[in-house]
Amino acid sequence: MDETPATPVITIGLNSGQATFDYAMAELDALVEANNMTVVEQVQQALSKPNPGTYFGTGKVEELATIVADDGVDTIVVNDELTPSQIRNLEAGTKARIIDRTGLILEIFANRAQSREAKLQVQLAMLQYQLPRLHTSASQRLDQQTGSGGGGGFTNRGAGESQTEMSRRTIQRSINHVNHELKEINQAAETQRAQRERNQLPSVALVGYTNAGKSTLMNALVQRFGKNEDKQVFVKNMLFATLDTSVRQLIFPDQKKLLLSDTVGFVSQLPTNLVKAFRSTLAEAANADLLVQVVDYADVNREAMMATTEKTLQEIGVTDVPMITVFNKADLTSATYPSRAGDQLILSAKDDASIDMLVQTMKEKVFHNYVTANFLIPFDAGDVVAYLNDHANVLSTDYQATGTAMRVELPQADFNRFRQYVVTDAPSED
Ligand SMILES: Nc1nc2c(ncn2[C@@H]2O[C@H](COP(=O)(O)OP(=O)(O)OP(=O)(O)O)[C@@H](O)[C@H]2O)c(=O)[nH]1
Ligand SMILES: [Mg+2]
């Protein structure tokens, strides 16, 4: 997407003995790359807690200033979220532009957002991030478009970069404006969701850490069980490839149908504002009948990634949706796949047998209110036969003198609807 050469940056992080420090720094590198930047040097300081004024200690800040001058690098990316004054002081002390982890993630999202809703959501998060940081420094500037309701975000490198310092009131007004627009979009989304609920199709949402393979799984499922005209979703080996929710209908050979959604991935320390701003996008997960947590099984940090996913789900209020866990990318490990133990699957999105096992598991979880029954449908009710052929799993059909005898597996609601044609014993639970 970004054709301009990567901006060289220095990454810095405070090691206060947290177990996840190395992982967080490695992830910061990946985030930096995702933002079309490249790490030329990494500086760490072991300190029990950040210096309230400058994040790093004074001596270390001087060291940083020297590195900045020697390397000719003008941007430093910090592993933590900083206070406005820490950003200001570090910029003064190092003569470099300071981007904290939150700012970095916001920039990536701004560059990736495609749909109007995603753009507005990112914009809202950015405005909220900017509000307390007004007047902090010239480099924390807002793109002039920010208030106009459709702009991409605040990274607009090079020519045309706006120097506008928005007043607090202007930002607040923009926040209200964006909120209003989002509300309108959300109402439309709500309507669509309500419509789908009326359709009574169960829904399954793919969730998990960014780059785990959610979109790849979605595509594999859609390719086999989707409608022909369904488009593939975007897949790329980069963080936050997907920001928009896609929903596709899957139809299995036994006529059972479900709705599958793919949405934004998570990352550790995902900014709270961003999570809140994406709440409506993530509502697909909250309203699902089943969550499929996708985990990159080949990643040594998968435990931490799962913990982050579960924490983020809690933040958006998704606490009581049943979940299965898919350890994906097994082809990159020495594990035997596909394999299943209870609600946990080890598989590869690139393998047909894996997709079969996933489908089997999903079906077990969501189609529990199906019944199997025998019907005898009189010839003058041919529309019922047609309906069952289209909507149910017809196990056998026999044309008899008095009508069409069918043995059918169907949703409880349809069974109730056609109960008058049931001929034999009570329905058996599926
Ligand atoms: N080898 C292997 N690679 C996979 C597998 N599944 C996904 N990938 C690769 O992993 C990368 C990320 O896949 P995506 O499907 O975009 O991941 P995602 O979870 O949708 O990521 P975000 O949209 O960023 O949240 C791509 O390069 C995929 O080709 C798998 O089972 N095996
Ligand atoms: Mg994706």
UniProtKB/TrEMBL annotation:
The keyword Iron-sulfur does not apply. Residues 138-168 are annotated as: Disordered. Belongs to the TRAFAC class OBG-HflX-like GTPase superfamily. HflX GTPase family. This is GTPase HflX. PANTHER family: GTP-BINDING PROTEIN HFLX, GTPASE HFLX. It is found in: Cytoplasm. SUPFAM superfamilies: P-loop containing nucleoside triphosphate hydrolases (SSF52540). It comes from the Bacteria. GTPase that associates with the 50S ribosomal subunit and may have a role during protein synthesis or ribosome biogenesis. It comes from Levilactobacillus zymae. InterPro entries: G_HFLX_dom, GTP-bd, GTP-bd_M, GTPase_HflX, GTPase_HflX_N, GTPase_HflX_N_sf, P-loop_NTPase. It holds the Pfam family GTP-bdg_N.
